Amino acid sequence: MGVEARYRMVALLPRLRAFALALSRSRTDADDLVQAACERALSSLSTYREGTNFDAWMMRILRNLWIDGYRRRKGEVLIDITDPVHDPVGQDGRVATEARMALNSVRQAIETLPEEQRAVLVLVCVDGLSYRDAAHVLDAPIGTVMSRLARARASLANALEGNAGLPLRPAGREAAR
Q1: How far apart, in whole angstroms, are the C-alpha atoms of residue 134 and residue 137?
Q2: What is the CA radius of gyration of the chain?
Q3: DSSP of 34-101, one letter per residue?
Q4: What is the dihedral of CA 24, 158, 105, 130, to 10 degrees?
Q5: Helix crossing, 54-68 with 27-43: angle to 10°?
Q6: What pTM does this model have?
Q7: Measuring CA to CA, how many Å separate 50 from each of 2, 5, 57?
Q8: Which residues contact 143 (CB under 8 A, 6 or more apart)?
Q9: Are 109 and 159 in contact (CB under 8 A)?
Q10: How far is CA 92 from CA 84, 95, 97, in A?
Q11: Which long-range contacts (CB under 8 A, 24 or more apart) does 25-32 make?
């Protein structure tokens, strides 16, 4: 599994970083968290059970590292150092600006969610993990994942209520994958 795991880990890096960014809210901390998770996984490959979801195993390592170390820094002030998005040539500036503003509103609303809701929202809605895999990553029952996701979606809908043009509620109830 050694070489194969390394290839799978490299392919998973963008998703790991997205999850780490959702947890840490800092690009620098997210990068450090991903690096630490990869180091931990490589040194712990013998604990991976063949036939289980490798992605969920990696996400769980990342989350556990976050809990172990990064949450202690709750009192620190976070500074948003995101790079501005440059408009591609020929793109309607008004449309791009409105899209950026809508995305920024959603990002800000997600950042106000409690960590448990933010984590499950990113794992299921952004990263596409099944409820079962998200439950494994979060070490929580599937019912807890579903209720946290429902609360996160409701909170986002309430936070975005005044922003016209944003989809506020899902079209239908998602099946428990």
Answers
A1: 5
A2: 18
A3: HHHHHHHHHHTGGGPPTTS-HHHHHHHHHHHHHHHTGGGGTTSPP---PPPPPPPTT--HHHHHHHHH
A4: 50
A5: 120
A6: 0.52
A7: 12, 11, 11
A8: none
A9: yes
A10: 17, 5, 9
A11: 25/78, 25/111, 26/78, 27/81, 27/82, 28/81, 29/70
In 3D, which of 23, 16, 8, 15 has the Cα closest to residue 37?
16
Place of tokens 């968290």: 33
pLDDT tens per residue, the chain (177 residues)?
567 878 888 999 999 998 988 888 888 888 999 999 999 998 988 888 888 889 989 999 999 898 887 556 655 554 544 455 544 445 566 776 777 777 778 888 888 889 889 989 988 988 888 999 999 988 899 999 999 999 999 988 888 885 544 444 443 344 344
Q: How far apart are CA 99 and CA 93, in angstroms?
A: 10
Residue 133 corresponds to which tokens in the numbers above? 């895999």
- Are 61 and 37 in contact by the 8 Å Cβ rule? The answer is yes
Q: Are 20 and 126 in contact (CB under 8 A)?
A: no
Which residue is it, tokens 């840490």?
Answer: 24
